[in-house]
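Next comes this protein.

***
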Amino acid sequence: MGDRFGIVFLMTVLIAVGAAAQPDSTVSPSVTILETQEAQSILGRDVRSLTDEDMGRIVDILVDGEGGVRAAIIDFGGFLGVGNRKIAVDWKALHFVPAAGKRYSVVLELTRDQVKAAPEYKEGKPTIVLGASGNLEPLP
């Protein structure tokens, strides 16, 4: 009788643990509505310097293992697609300034010469990020 009680008890515990591990499919996922001025896409957005120089456009974003944004990849330089280079710049070097038409301007706090001197970003190679102070920093 004791063995039977132990087996019933063990099966009850296993069923309870299994049920707890299963997501509840009757619960709807949460939904958040973002107003257009609260969130905007920045891929393809033009980047300007503090002195309003054309610094290129954002073509990619790099995130770390926890999903934190680390750097933006800017397609910099060249003319009509010739001579362009991709440069990784520290996310903290970018500022999003309200502009006309409910869009944000992207401003980079680095000079054109600082960005021009930075090494090119190449996917699959070690990434060197141009820091907010103009220093080069390896991205782990």
In short: Helices lie at 2-21, 112-117. The CA atoms of residues 48 and 54 lie 5 Å apart. The longest helix spans residues 2-21. The two ends are 61 Å apart (CA to CA).
